[in-house]
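Hi everyone,

Forwarding the result from last night's run.
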Amino acid sequence: GCGSNIVSRMISRGVGIARRGGAVVGPHATARAASTSAGELRRTLVHDEHVEAGGNMVDYAGFRMPLLYKGDSPFIANAASIKDSARWTRKHASLFDVGHMCSLKWTGKDATAFLESVTVADIQGLEMNQSTLSVIPNEQGGVIDDTMITKCPDHIYQVINAGCGQKDLDHLDEQLGRFGGDVNLEVAWETDRGLFALQGPEAHVVMQRLIPDKADLSSVLFGGAFNADIAGHPCFITRCGYTGEDGFEINCPKDAAPFLWQHILANDEVRLAGLGARDMLRMEAGLCLYGFELSSTITPPEAGLSWTVGAARRAEGAAPFLGSDIILAQLKDRTLVKSLRCGMISEGPPARAGADITTLEGEVVGTVTSGCSSPCLGKNIAMGTVTKPHNRRETELQVVVRGKSYPAKVTGLPFVPTSYYKGL
């Protein structure tokens, strides 16, 4: 299955640091770093729940995480295989453990200015209790990581990827040392809080049931954030996700994490889902994965993420961000962008990451970054970086799989229409 595609190429990272008031601290850094160096995989707070439910546990970015679930658990009924799990998510609701990702809490009067110097986000223009996808660029305009940023009344909440966590934290700490100012950072990782993603068209029904005291969720649009108690436990919830479906990310207290995991699963609409289904779903939704569609040598315009650079960040006289000279130049003059991310439908076996993309005459014009057999479309889908003008829709190309060329056609993204909640 294409789930192995995501697992095989991710790199294990160590533990992060926190900078508070200018001091670098890491209360559990020594113990965690030691366990990582000894080859022991890190575990989220619901690791045992995965194992009990039949989780096929694999090494993902240095964490022991479920690729899929096997057995007779009622929590995987009709959703056991990776493809069945993906289909269930598209029709009902699935629960993903994303506790391996790293949560950051920024405070201080200069926090917004600092984050705008190290991301392409327009945080000043972001509405209160709203989230946005952004990227952390390097000085060459490449992407260090993609990230979710949420503007809260008393802090800025950020989530970074597990596989990039240590690299990101080192980079942010270096930049913060140069920036100075009143900026404080608190880091929460796998043992500090639970982080779950409830995804699918029935996720809002389940969430409304979980928080009956909360006002009608129909007023919370996709990207919105709010605080609410679930079974008496205070949670920070964002309406977002990585599947193309409506959904919620739930940040909960560490002591309550196993209970709340089971409490959410107790809803009839919900099934467990692992990394394999998550990867298929994000591919169908045309979403980037760091290390595949994104890297330190791919700029946001090349990755199809020009929209993440807010209008205020492009304006004359706007404060610069790392790599802004290169990124803004590409946004103004598209001829500077020589290759672009695009989608393809292909014949034959699914094209995997690294496969060559060629013209009908055999000239290599790109590389597949992700690919699988789509469970929802019943076709082979792939994303890749292709040189212009071969990235245009309907262009006939070929993908090379195990030394043999198969027909492929450039198509628009996403492959499966997204269902983000935009209001009634």
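The CA atoms of residues 74 and 271 lie 8 Å apart.

Cheers,
N.
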